[in-house]
Each structure stands twice: as structure tokens, then as C-alpha cells.
Amino acid sequence: MHLALLSVHTSPLEQPGTGDAGGLNVYVDETSRQLAQRGIEVDVFTRATTPHQPPTEQIVDGVRVHHLPAGPLDSVRKDELPVYLCSLASEMLRVGARNPAGYFDVIHSHYWLSGQVGSVASDRWNIPLVHTMHTLAEVKNANLASGDKPEPTLRVQGEQQVVRDADILLANTKSEATDLVNLYGADPEHVKVAHPGVDLAQFAPGDKSAAREALGIRPDAYLALFVGRIQPLKGPDVLIRAAAELIKLRPDLEDRLVVAICGGPSGAGPERMAELRRLSDDLGISHLIRFEPPSTRPELARWFQAADVTCVPSYSESFGLVALESQATATPVLAANVGGLKTAVSHGVSGQLVDSHDPYIWAQHLDELERQPRLREHLSHGARLYASDFGWSATADALIDVYEQAIRLRRFGNLHSA
Fold first, then answer.
1. Which pLDDT score is estimated for 11?
2. Assigned domain for 228 exists
3. Strand order in the sheet with 222-227
4. Neighbour order of strands in the sheet with 129-132
5. Per the structure, how many domains does the chain have?
6. Which residue from 21, 54, 293, 417 puts its CA 20 to 30 A from 263's CA?
7. Is residue 418, in this structure, part of any structural domain at all?
8. How do residues 122-175 score in pLDDT, each as one tens digit?
9. Phi, psi of 129 (to 5 degrees)
């Protein structure tokens, strides 16, 4: 099988945790590698962002990344990319024309921008389009953080077009599948679910004392960790405000509490980082907050191993890979009870789901976890067991099944045809 994989707005080669790079990048990188191990040739198409990028770069045997020139050779905000979609589609077709006719068997596009390009290529090459949204504008707009801007009508309309054009829509969770049907009118028969995964070898339990020593964290610290892009949607301010509330509840923790914010700016860029720093100063807890840049995968695993709890206070999440990665290291998760986090975290088993973004409520949960080491131990044990069912190998197997269904659907017009 030959797969054309589209991630036009962000490359799998980019560092997750800053700009537009995040869980989607990890998903594309990990699944591409897994598919290549199964003998599938994967060509990833993304937009060129620097003049130094080679036209084609090989990640591993069987996985090539094509950098398509469209727009300036620089980073471009997602909301500015729609004007370059025609150029991206043209460049993708040009690169694809180097192969023999009928070379690609299926297209898998990620995020609505890629879906627009994938729709053009699907029509030109007469092959099926499988599409993963990752996030939905209608869902994000219904769960906006304070001060966040709603997604534009152009995106909503673009997503509706992709829903109409895709042969199969691939959701990360059942909750997302329901949203595609109820909010976008997708045909339930053409919506399939495949959970993202986690690298269980990279993210594994480790020596907490050694991890803390490497990171400069006191052995007796109570470490609450946030990992992700710095944007209102991810809710890092909720954790900072919760830390201030926790000190009010527990003044004795002021000497031991450490809140690590690991990630880079996204959207408004440095302004968001400056806002968080001002917030911690205004609350009088700047001495408790550590702002850390995006980490490599080994460094990120060390942060998870060092933490007592990982906090994911997002207002909307398609899945929440950070939660799964933390749990794989046996660190429990405190997460907002929204979207895909309901699947990524098993309440009372691998972590706790919070039905609020009220910082005081989050402070109470943090207080409970600090006061009850046996509860943390119980959740730590359950976290690794729960995450062990989400390896990337299982994701790749599910993807192959969906690709084969899409090919049958395009050939015979029926998902159940032999």
C-alpha cells in the first residue's frame, strides 16, 4: 500500500509544544513509522517553512516528508494559511506526478486545512480520502476559554466541506465521532474511531529521585506539571491560579510546591507567555512557577517521571496525548472532564476528571492528592496499566483496517463489500 499523508500546516519534523506543533505532529510521526514497519510506503506532504529545508527528507525507511513551497518560506499562522491552499494542492499534485499512474492507494489528511488539499488530490487521482479533524471548530467555539477568540466561519465551512468530501472520517474517540454526526451531519456509517497511542518504551516509569535531581527539583517538592502549547485553550492559567488558591488552603506547602509550565507560545506568541508571567507575579507566586521551554521526548519523559501529578485543564481536547504520556510513566493525571480527555483518562483509576475550570476546585483536588499519598500510589499503579492499552502499534492496525475499508468503499460503493 502507498499512502499520501497530509499535514500541511505543521510538519512531523517540528518540535511539539510550540507554535502549531503538538499532539498532531506526534500522531503523524508515530503512525508513519508504525505503518512503514508494516511495509506501507508513506509520503508526508507539508508546507515548507524555511529556505534551507530539502524538497524531500526521509525520516526512516519507507517514510518521506515533502516540503511544498507555498507562501513565504517562514512560519505562517493557521488563520492565514487558507489563501495558500490552492498552491499547496498544486504542489502536491506536481510532486505526486513523479510517480507512476495509480501509485497512491489512499490519502489520509490531518486537520481541516489538509482536508481541503486532500479533497482536490482525491478527485484528481480517484482514490479515497480518509480524514482526521483532530479538533473541531464547533466544539472549540462552544467551550471557549476567557479571552480566547472563536474560530472563524471560514473554518466551520471548510470543515463542513471536508465532512462532505471524505470517504471516511476518522475520529480519535467516540465522543468526537458523535460530534461529527450531531454537529456536522456526518453519515454515521462513514465515521470510524481509532484511538491515538503512546510510545510505551519512551514513556515508562523511572527513578523519580534521579529525574528530580537532573531537573533541579527538591526531593520533597510537591510537583504539579503542565505540558503543552501556551494558549488559552490549554488553560495553563487555570493551574497557576489553582496554585495560588492551594497556598491559601495550605500555607505550609509554600516551601514545597513547584508548578512547572513546560511548553512554548502558540497563537499570539510571546504575549501569552508574558501574560502568564504577569499573572504569577500578580498572585504573588512567581517563586513557585518554573517556565520551561518545549522538551525533547527523553526530557519530557523525565519531567513526567519527576512529577507528582500532571494537570491538563484544557477547555477542549480531541484526545489529549499529554495525559496518556504522563500515565505511561505512572504519573497520575488531573484533567478537565472534556472531549477526548474522558477517554484518555480513566477517572479514579489513572487519574481524576474535574467538572470545572474553577481554580479553587482544582486547588481542592491538588490538596487531596498531596494529603493522600496512598491515593497517589493507587492512581500511579492504575495509570501505567491504563496507558499500556494505548500503544501506537494498535493505532496503526486500526488505521490499516480503515484504509482498506476506504479502498473498498471507493471501488464498490459499500463499506461491507468483500
1. 86
2. yes
3. 289-292, 257-262, 222-227, 309-312, 333-336, 351-354
4. 56-60, 63-68, 41-47, 2-6, 106-110, 129-132, 168-171, 191-193
5. 2
6. 54
7. no
8. 999 999 999 999 999 999 999 988 878 899 999 999 999 999 999 999 999 999
9. -110, 120
The range of the structural domain enclosing residue 250 comes to: 208-387
Write down the H helix ranges in 166-235. Answer: 174-184, 208-215
Alpha helices in 143-269, H assignment, sequence order: 153-165, 174-184, 208-215, 236-249
Cα 159 to Cα 171: distance, rounded to the nearest angstrom: 14
Cell representation of residue 182: 450531531
Q: Give the closest residue to 344 by CA, choosing from 202, 206, 192, 172.
A: 172
Query: 278: part of which helix (H) or strand (E)?
Result: helix 270-282
Ranges of residues in the chain whose predicted pLDDT is under 50? 418
Quote the CA–CA distance of 279 and 282 in Å, as a whole number: 5
One-character DSSP codes across 91-112: HHHHHHTTSPTT---EEEEEHH
Q: In one letter, which amino acid is 365?
A: H
Q: Do 166 and 61 sit in the same domain of this protein? A: yes
Q: What is the pTM of this model?
A: 0.91
Distance CA 357, CA 347 (A): 17
